[in-house]
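Notes from the pairing session

We agreed to fold both candidates in a single pass and log them together. This is the raw record for the first candidate, unedited. Please don't reformat it; downstream parsing expects exactly this layout.

Candidate A
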Amino acid sequence: MKILREKKVKKILAFYKNYFHFRTPYQVLIDGTFCLAALNSHLDINDVLSKYLQSEIRLFTTSCAIAEAHSLEKLFPGLLPQLCSCQVCSCGHKKKAVSVVECFKSMVNNNNNNHYILCTQDKKIQKVLRKTPGVPIIFIDRTVCIEQPSKVSQQIATDGFDGEVEELNYEDKVLNQLKERILVKKPRVDFKKQKSKKGANPLSCKKKKVVNVVPSKDNGIKKSRKRRKKYKVSSHIKELLKNIQQ
């Protein structure tokens, strides 16, 4: 599963955990349309959903959904065995089966106290159960996808926690006041840098010439005398000079 898709699932599941108290293992309620979509996409429902939700799951269905699958057994022969592999929970319609829309609506009740995650491809069921808060809806569109929480779920989540938010804001204010009392802020002092006198750069200065100091005989005062440079004369020039003097 890709990283962005994984983050999206974690965020949605965290919403239902925090506001509607969903816990693992998740209880997943499946109808025939979801099983048929899984068969067409060659997906193993238990394996795919457990990986997608990143948790253990329990697959449930109702006797009304199985009755609907019986009527479609000739058209879709592999549908009924796959739906019957799920655990059948009592929906209260033993005497006479009702439509899956009404059956699932009764299973979810008003607040989805059993914390069912609904898996269906039926648009009617999805539309009806979006009106009830705290019902996650999963469908197959090439891969398994989960819907964003409905507006009703988001509204009830925010309305139900207004009091707690106000308490948290009050606690934050008290903590900030205590911090200000305990941690007294010291006045900020700007220290101006004293400008130091800068001399010449010693690397850019020329080296001083070395002067030999010779003491004078008369006054004992030291006088400076510069050294004369000695020039070397080659031997053939010396011979020429001697011949000229002769």
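Candidate B (folded immediately after A)
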Amino acid sequence: MKNTFKLSLAAILVSTAMGANAGISIVDNETGNFSIGGDVEFDFNFERLERANEKENAFNQSGRILLEFAGERYTQNGHVLQVKVQPLMESSGNVALDDAWFAFGAQDGWNIRMGRFEAFDMFPVGQDTFLEYSGDTANDLYRDGAAYVYQMKEGRGRGSDGQIMYSQNFGNLYLELGSMIGDRSVLFGSPTGTTDKAKYHGETVKNNKDSVLLRPVVGYQAGNFGIAASLEANLVKDAVITETSGVDISDRKGYGITTNYSTADWNLIANFAYMDAVDEDNMTVGVNALYKGFGLGYVHAANEYESKELGSYADGKAKVDTVYASYEFADVLAVDDFSIYLGAYYTKVDDKTAQKIFEENQDTGMRVRFKYFF
């Protein structure tokens, strides 16, 4: 992926979502630049899903076209103003939005960003051409009846009520303080397989107050090796509660560490994430490697439940194990930035809770992805 903005340690440490795509520079001089670019991504998917002890085959095509408008202006006193907008046209007919943000700060120094965006990726999964988790689980949305694959994303961004973030480089050290505000009951989805109201441990979820989530990150890059640590927590008491018992389920604290090592041919990543929530703890570890276009990864999620504050929803443990792989055919037809990816995953749920609330299913998927940056 080519960058419109100047590269820095922050650009190395932060996920590729923080950069800009290759594009056409409309303006590019000493006072700033403006470019138009984007990418095309279309997938042909096959999945074998196990639900209620029955296997179901699913074959479909998905994808979208992303347009990117990115601008940067430099001032004579060393400051910079930045803006980015990324509308999405999906093959389903829906129109959506990835990033839409405005930022200002010092050139190669401090930066304040506001709007809609994703902050530092504390659980990068490498070349995840196709990565799903069994049992209708999710890595960014909690659902009753599904084991949670927690990946330090509850306060990462792209919320509908707004966010603001400060970041700065100090040599090899990178600091970031992200925040999200507003209604965070949207973190909780409908129970698995239903369209009911959002629930947590069997009780309906209610937004009681606007939340304020903070997510500080500290990263350090030394040559080929990088490491980052972070936590995320809501500062407002009783922001999201259960309707019946009034228990504060917004009292959630997450912790994470990610490390990476890169050479000309190798990119190795290891991740750890832990969430301390009401009546449950969620721990996820992951490793992945990329070698000359071939990617391989493994994610293990272990959740522990107890019936302490909220009835008898579940007691015991549940885990999700997922393996995924992919291969990139780069520069297809001798065209730069045009790639075809082959991807596959296998995932299963192991339910050791006393109530057996999770389906012990196994899912498999394969994908062919066509990707072009323009």
